[in-house]
Write a structure and sequence with these properties.
Elements (H helix, E strand, L loop, with lengths): L1 E2 L6 E2 L7 H18 L3 H12 L1 E4 L4 E4 L7 H19 L15
Antiparallel strand pairs: 1-2, 3-4
């Protein structure tokens, strides 16, 4: 545990996404990369900019959040946002987390 430097209260470490969530995320990145002609890492970076960025009006910089630091519940929301966007905007189906899906090699 860590301690708050301001009040001295012991803080629970932030929960991180599960390994199953991580596998699903990279499965989606791989599907999108294959369909769009990019690498999974390029898709990952682009999706972060699309869904996890904000502009700092005082500097004009675009601040992009890390997916690794998102709480599991917010990460699940992001996954669902990605699935909906992918289907409606790109016409690419990403299987639901609980759906059995066999990808062609």
């Amino acid at each position: 545990m860590t301690t708050c430097p301001h009040c001295g209260v012991e803080l629970e470490p932030a929960k991180r996404r599960s390994s199953a969530q991580n596998r699903l995320w990279w499965r989606y990145m791989t599907i999108l990369a294959r369909e769009l002609g990019y690498t999974p890492e390029e898709i990952h970076d682009s999706v972060k900019v699309k869904f996890l960025s904000r502009e700092d009006l005082s500097t004009g910089l675009t601040i992009v959040q890390s997916t690794a630091k998102l709480p599991p519940a917010r990460f699940s929301e992001l996954v669902e946002e990605l699935r909906i966007w992918s289907h409606w905007k790109l016409g690419i189906y990403l299987p639901a987390p609980d759906e059995r899906f066999l990808e062609a090699a």
